[in-house]
Amino acid sequence: MSGPVRIDRSGHVVVWTLDNPGARNPISDPETIAAVEDAVAEADRDLTVRVAILSATGPAFSSGGNIEHMRDRAGMFGGSPAELYRNYRHGIQRIPKALYYCEVPTIAAVNGPAVGAGCDLAMMCDIRLASTAATFAESFVRVGIVPGDGGAWLLSRAIGTARAAEMAFTGEPVDAATALEWGLISAVVEPARLLESAHDLATRIARQPPHALRMTKRLLRSAENHSLDSVLELSAAMQAAVHHTADHAEAVAAMLARREPRFTGA
Asked: Could you say which protein family the record assigns here (predicted)?
């Protein structure tokens, strides 16, 4: 599929690939924002999709905002303060909302520099793998602006407030080894093995019953912002639902028979 986000499918795994390498895969253009939203909505509707991988073509993962548009005060970076406020709210901020609330587990396969909103884009995914060529920079201050796409919320939850502050206050990039040490990513692999590693992880996740997967992700998201009592209530309600799925019965039967389960999404 052509466009700013290419969509490919392999079994129960969908791959979203940012495909504007000449501009280093910015995500502030209306076409890219809409494409990400549409890709997430399509995956959410399709119960046969169990995992999504987000990666990019070219040497960079994402440059975030389009710097030339910032210079020219064009696109979402143009207009009065009131218009800019609306441009962010109804523009790039649609991406964190789409990815954060995506029902299926998401894996960012970060192939190269993830800069500004590109760094935050990786944070929007549930799990992050990186190639040795990847770097991460919360670099908004270096162009005289603030994280406008939720980075202040996302980054601190990924690596803690002190290290998030260091990245945001200096704007300096961290390499993949440092990102691994800080817990920003789960693994570092050679560039040639990045997508293979992402697919391996996706396959391990996709083996699980799809309803339980989606509900587990929702519980993890709820746990970030709600009390223990609220999460316990939601957990009980979800348990009542999944206990009546055919996949639960299959999982129990397979475990007792010591065989591989065959989940159908029923």
From this structure: Belongs to the enoyl-CoA hydratase/isomerase family.
